[in-house]
Amino acid sequence: GAVVSQHPSRVICKSGTSVKIECRSLDFQATTMFWYRQFPKQSLMLMATSNEGSKATYEQGVEKDKFLINHASLTLSTLTVTSAHPEDSSFYICSARVAGVRGNEQFFGPGTRLTVL
Amino acid sequence: QKEVEQDPGPLSVPEGAIVSLNCTYSNSAFQYFMWYRQYSRKGPELLMYTYSSGNKEDGRFTAQVDKSSKYISLFIRDSQPSDSATYLCAFLEWGGSEKLVFGKGTKLTVNP
Asked: Average pLDDT for residues A52-65, to the nearest whole number?
């Protein structure tokens, strides 16, 4: 199956710093990638949809200036959490879509656990 | 009314038991129905996918969809300790946004 990687898997940072998370599709090209956030005992919530070469589409309530998304190539999307605060601590998961396969199946990365002190 | 309702459990069963996991939904535009399995600290992986009412079987797993009642189920036969994970139902609109809408997930533990 298609493999999606994320880096780093875990990051701890001080409040006010910025953190960059990378999402890569390893063995396929993904025109669309998605970024989700998952709080403990909560469902995955879509933050934004990222299409290669264009601006990301953010879900309602997600600050686009705080969560910067760049999808510069067909295999790489990055999420930068700017000026992170403790309330941004969460599990961030990306997925990549393979068009035409099993209802446009999304393959998920292993997630990045962000802890902001 | 929430768009998707899923009992978070936790659910604990002995090895070999039949497990039944359920979700209800309110959005009639949902036409793709999925079940994902998520192990602790990992991303979800797609288990089952269907777009029609009725049953779909894959090994020990059976996905059931009842569109009239807006109710989907996942059955696991002969459950194994390796099935211990959180199971999330997910929905996608037909021809609409690509946005997956997830349930909260049900945490399942299968005891040896």
From this structure: 90
